Amino acid sequence: MAQPLSRDPTAHPTRAPGPRATAYAWYVLALLTLVYLSNHSDRLLLSVLIKPIKEEFGVSDTLIGLLAGPAFAIFYTLLGLPIARWADRGDRRSIIAIGLAVWSAMTALAGAAQSFVQLALTRVGVATGEAAGSPPAHSLISDYFPPSTRGRALGIYAGAVHLAGPIGVMGGAWIAHKYGWRGAFLAFGIPGLVLAILVRTTVHEPERGGMDGSPPPPIAEPWRVVRGLFAKRSYYWLQFGATLHAFAGYGLGLWVFEFMARVHGLSMQQASLEVGGLNLLCGIAGVALGGFLTDRLSRVDARWFLWLPSLQAATAAPMAVVFLYLDRLDLALIFYAIHWVINASYNAPTYALMQALADARSRALAVATHLSIVNLVGLTSGPFLVGVLNDALRPTYGEGAIRYSLMAVCISNAFASIFYMLGSRSLPADLEPAAR
């Protein structure tokens, strides 16, 4: 007999008792999290190699920002949607394995680049492969975990972003110090090829919608799926909030190590240890907190799916600005740690919400649509704008120009809070069809 809908219009309608995740499901989650760790480690490795790359190729901050932002995001966006549609129809594990092999090979090839143009082309290759990463992975996780623990599972997966920073930064800085920046790209690319084989041979394709208590609906045309998603006002406003979140996050994430070197006089190895260590510890804490709060609070009121990131955006932004403003390194790092815990916790509620709003046949496309918007605007413009402002403000502020560039980017995060709150107003009504 079907579970009746809750009479409370604010309760999350997909929290009915159901199947439990198996030990194998947790293995798949751990493996996919490693894949995502590889994804972002390869992407963030560039942040600690800015100085040697600039010195060898003689390029400006603007060109570095262009390499890290638009050169990556445009191709990631263009390929993300068709690959996600393939994932909603086909074998998701194979798609992930192929993408992982491509981005790992392109990362390794970056070490052989003989010009800045060749390096840019390898980053385009990395973007091409990484477009096949998260959308099919989110869809797989949702078919391995029931709604009652899906927020925690997706939070753990998203937490790889915050673990990738320390690994990409500390590992990359150490390898570059010993073997040069080319050796760092090579060392980070090769392990992903082995991981791709492991994904293809040990991950099983689960039944779509098996954890939702009902068979998936017939697959719809992509334009109908996207139109249906944006007809839900919560999904619509979520895109605005997450884009501002990404704009600030990517801008600070790429340039924070250069900030530590230029403003506080740290070497790249010192900056990677100071900031990378905090990213690791605070990232784990933030991920655990975000997943726990999402699963607990959304049972009480579904609007917490968007209330949580709204609170996180409103509190993380001022913490980042204080970090950038302070001249005392010890005090600055305290505020950076607080900022990172808060910022690491917003992925769980937003990604869990997207999986709740989409049906089992459109989950990859729902995530890919979201990531396309977030990356096309946030990733394209965040790092690039910081680079442009650095070059524009350097005649006035010298190396300290990066402080004001990053402040301008981080302040924008606070406005994300408004859009999340707007989306929360229609969330109970948007989730009602999922219950039926």
Write the layout of secondary structure elements.
Elements: H1 23-44, H2 50-57, H3 61-68, H4 70-89, H5 92-110, H6 116-130, H7 134-144, H8 147-158, H9 160-202, H10 222-231, H11 233-264, H12 268-300, H13 304-325, H14 329-343, H15 347-357, H16 363-397, H17 401-411, H18 413-424, H19 427-435
Helix pairs in contact: 1-5, 1-7, 1-8, 1-9, 3-4, 3-16, 4-6, 4-16, 5-6, 5-7, 5-9, 7-16, 8-12, 8-15, 9-12, 11-12, 11-16, 11-17, 11-18, 12-14, 12-15, 13-14, 13-15, 13-17, 13-18, 16-17
How does this structure look, described?
With 436 residues, the protein is mainly α. It has one domain: Growth Hormone, Chain: A. The chain has helices spanning 23-44, 50-57, 61-68, 70-89, 92-110, 116-130, 134-144, 147-158, 160-202, 222-231, 233-264, 268-300, 304-325, 329-343, 347-357, 363-397, 401-411, 413-424, 427-435. Residues 1-9 and 13-17 have low confidence and may be disordered.
